[in-house]
Amino acid sequence: MRKYVFSFLFIALSFVISLIALPYMPDQMAMHWNINGEADQFWNKSYAVFFGPLLMIVMLSLFVLLPKVDPKKENYKKFSGSYNIFVNMFIVFFFLLHIVTIGYNLGLDLDISLVVIIAVGLFFIILGNYMPRIKHNYFMGIRTPWTLANEKTWTKTHQLGGKMFVLAGVCMMLISFLPGLYKFIGLLIIIIFTLLISTISSYIYFNRYK
């Protein structure tokens, strides 16, 4: 578990921040925002303020469990460094979302949609750089019937997928400054295009290497 010390520290810090912020939170905390960045769902502060840290604990537990139950568990040893970086990066991502949520409910003037899309774009860029290192498995990466059926297809698809994710991340960061509706449409187009290219390429590679 020492490889996840970084994640544990951020989870512990998120709990400390929640405890400190709790007395200053409104009774009903904003927890969801529409495409225009306007809060449209509110939760009681007694559990809303701890939702982020608890979610991080659940996610980290899943990430620790997955390599133990995956039929391709031996392959995780081949990209353990990249996997650990991904896990820690994922926890940091949710930590940042938690901080932004706390800040918004403290009254800071934050454009939530701008912050979230920039964070997601940065997440895609980092993930794209590590994606070619991900070895054949059933839980992480571009999982289509064709990548799961053929390791060569998996490798070629993730080499292309890595570039696609980096490009998608850059595009997300660029559209984050657009008005709400255009930002939402742009995000959908980027995600759908990335998924389509990744899926179609895996089918093409499968037929080439089968």
TrEMBL record:
Keywords, ordered alphabetically: Membrane, Transmembrane, Transmembrane helix
TM region(s), chain numbering: 7-26, 46-66, 86-106, 112-130, 160-178, 184-206
Entries under InterPro entries matching the protein: DUF1648, SdpI, SdpI/YhfL
Superkingdom in the source lineage: Bacteria
Domain DUF1648: 9-57
PANTHER family, sorted: IMMUNITY PROTEIN SDPI
Protein name, UniProt field: SdpI family protein
Organism: Metabacillus halosaccharovorans
